[in-house]
Write a structure and sequence with these properties.
The chain has a domain of 212 residues: FAD/NAD(P)-binding domain, CATH 3.50.50. The chain has 13 helices and 20 strands. It has 394 residues and is α+β, with helices and mostly antiparallel strands. Strand 5 and strand 6 form a beta hairpin. It binds adenosine-5-diphosphoribose (APR) and P-hydroxybenzoic acid.
Amino acid sequence: MRTQVAIVGAGPSGLLLGQLLHKAGIDAVIVERQSAEYVLGRIRAGVLEQVTIDLLDEAGVGARMHKEGLVHGGFDMLFKGERHRIDMNRLTGGKNVMVYGQTEVTRDLMDARQAAGLTTVYEAVNVQVHDFDTRNPRVTYEKDGKTNEIQCDFIAGCDGFHGVCRASAPRSAIREYEKVYPFGWLGLLSDTPPVHEELIYANSERGFALCSMRSQTRSRYYLQVPLTDKVEDWSDEAFWQELRLRLDPDARNQLVTGPSIEKSIAPLRSFVTEPLRFGRMFLAGDAGHIVPPTGAKGLNLAATDVKYLFNGLVEYYKEKSEAGVDRYSELALKRIWRAERFSWWFTSLMHRFPENGEIGQKLQEAELDYLIHSEAGSRSVAENYVGLPLDFGL
Ligand code: APR
Ligand code: PHB
């Protein structure tokens, strides 16, 4: 088989790139290790920045998001038992975010791909990337006991943190930066109305908590837990009890509990690969970087990587210029480091770090107190939360 761009991975990055390329008349094939059902079964964050909303519109998959997504103009920060609203909309001159689950984004992209009759190979075994240091790269995989080969101009490594593309880059050409946090997030999804109409990020002496949502009838809550905790240790009742203890009295009274639909623990990590290009192979999304989830930047960063890569590929095919693909890594990394900085900072501000002792907690509270009382401080939080523009600082 021959195509212009071979995309490895059918998560949001791969699917979005595939859809944008299709709209631009550029041919792509996606090869995915898992089944479509498996990909849709993963529960991830659900806050979209304006740039991501615009990109989904550009890809032609924004209709359901605009109908069902919840537009949020602010969020609450809770500390010392009191809630304070960050009025993002006012502080950023009218910008908002959209609460719409990553699972739904993925479903919309999958549906559009299927409707357009585009090729996605699911359950591909032993996917390998070859010859990306030449002008004729290849992707091979096994399916139904047969080995298949895709010849292409470029490989897009959209295969997530555990993918094969980054692992296939020459070790001597790659630099990785990593920080692993000493705790995880225990998440619970339930068909209960959200405790509040906007998100609540809570700093408490018992640890961080987050009250989020998927719709008016479905809630998503998180608790900071030690890495040694197992999800089996946490009954639904124990989860709700601990969440109550981390909230303010008002939210505690408002909280509606119910059986969990999903419960899982995710570790927190900051991770960046440099560069994001190895000859004719590019890394985009979680394949190149991970942010801790505080601030929900993961999906948004994946989307903007894809936008930069897409622009470069369009320039290559329409204008016969390699300038765009040559700039991809540098451009994407600038935005990635900014989001890494914000996600690390927000994580450090909101979580309990036992090794920092009581003074650590006091200093966090003082910083939070400064942020909510200073227009400049609040605006800095707001402008990062809604997302920096694509051309910020360029
Ligand atoms: N061959 C083919 N596909 C692979 C391989 C492989 N060797 N390894 C992994 N994959 C697939 C995975 O099964 C997955 O479906 O690549 C896909 C990568 O998807 P994601 O992990 O969702 O990564 P990405 O598309 O970049 O999306 C980033 O996901 O983790 C969140 O916070 C992150 O929201 C962000 C988004
Ligand atoms: C979520 O709804 O899953 C979510 C929201 C905001 C975050 C992280 C996760 O910062």
